[in-house]
Amino acid sequence: MLLTAKILVFTLSGLLRVGTGFDIGLSTKCVVIPKEMDMCHEIGYSEMRLPNLMGHTSMAEVVLKSTTWQHLVHTDCHPHVRMFLCSLFAPICLDTFIHPCRSMCVGVRDSCAPVLACHGHTWPESLDCNRFPADEDMCLASLTKEYKYLHKVLPKPACQTCPAVEELFTHKRVLEVFCDTVKVKLSKKRAVIGDQEYNIECHVEFIIQGSLLPFETQHMIQQWLLINENCTQRMTQTHRPTVYLLVGKIEEGIILVNQIYHWQRKDSQLTLATQKWRYHKCL
């Protein structure tokens, strides 16, 4: 049922538009991208300019301000979100600043602003797309149509109201939801910076796969849990691992989870349904 796009790493040479770059008129220096900025690791370069394009003058300020965006990057709300934010917080160390193109900003904003809204935030004025150069200038451009064509277009999770966690009743009902279910073992750990991180273990034996692959399914669940963090927090009230069945559907490329069931291993009806699963035919 569920699938996701992997985070893409873009090389700078493949995204630059030829033209005239412009600088912000500050004396800058090259510094190594700090380990705390994990969202800007493995992006094609290891050194950044300081001050950066957000006007941050110290590394402590860069780390503090960028940390608030790492959660958004992990949602994969747009293929360019990582490169867009890193070009601003950790710009590549060249002779001049390379800004993201306005079209890249618009694409990231339109895809990621709904995720911010889901968490109670608006797209900030500091990232107003009108401040960035047009595509004919030297800037980080969007992917070409040819590149997009070569990559699979995958459904995306949506911000939604969290379904109530239900208990499974009869074994017949269990078999019905198995036909459209992902089994998830969900646990929680505390990150170094203080945010919550979620460890996801997915068992895909109960999924009607179709063209969707297990590793893509796992990443898709991670996206849904990050976007719908209010639901994830409800499901991880303790640090003890808990198993759930997530039941959902795909409509117009959007993935929605419409039911969540608590998997209780000792439940007799669940045990019976598991025994009957190999003989069950989904409609």
From TrEMBL:
Domain FZ: 25-142
Record-level GO cellular component terms: extracellular space
InterPro entries, per database record: Frizzled/SFRP, Frizzled_dom, Frizzled_dom_sf, Sizzled_CRD
CDD domains per UniProt: CRD_sizzled, NTR_Sfrp1_like
Disulfide bonds, paired cysteine numbers: 40-86, 105-129
Primary localisation category: secreted
UniProt KW Secreted keyword: yes
SMART domains associated with the record: FRI
Domain of life: Eukaryota
Biological processes annotated in GO: canonical Wnt signaling pathway; cell differentiation; non-canonical Wnt signaling pathway
Keywords noted in UniProt: Developmental protein, Differentiation, Disulfide bond, Secreted, Signal, Wnt signaling pathway
GO MF annotations, alphabetized: Wnt-protein binding
Signal peptide interval: 1-21
Record's subcellular location: Secreted
Stated family: Belongs to the secreted frizzled-related protein (sFRP) family.
Entries under PANTHER family matching the protein: FRIZZLED, SECRETED FRIZZLED-RELATED PROTEIN 2
Name of the protein: FZ domain-containing protein
Provenance organism: Pavo cristatus (Indian peafowl)
Lineage: Eukaryota, Metazoa, Chordata, Craniata, Vertebrata
